[in-house]
Amino acid sequence: MISKTIAELIYYAEKHLYLLDSDKIYFTNILLHFFGANEPYEGEIDKVRIESMEVPDEIVSEIFEHCLLSGDDEKEAERKADFALGIVSPLPSLVNGAFEEFKKNDPATALQFLKSLGTSNYYFQKTKVERNKDWTMTFEDGPNITLSINLSKPEKNNKDIAKLLTTASTNYPKCALCVENIGFYGDDKHAARMTIRYVPLDLAGERWYLQYSPYGYFRNHCICFKEDHIPMKVERKTFDRLLSFVEQFPSFFMGSNSDLPIVGGSILNHEHFQGGSPVLPLFASKDKEVIFTSKSGTKVAKVDSFTNTLRISGKDKEEIMDLGEKILNAWRIYDNEELGILHETDGNRHNTVTSYAIKNGEEYQLIIVLRCNITNEKYPDGVFHAHPEYHAIKKEGIGLIECAGEFVLPARLERQIKEVEESVNLSKEEYLKKYPDMSLFEDMINAMKENPSLDAGSYIGQVCRNILRNVAVFKDDEKGQQAYDAFLKEALK
Question: Where are the domains of the chain?
Answer without folding.
Answer: 2-88, 127-407+482-491, 412-471
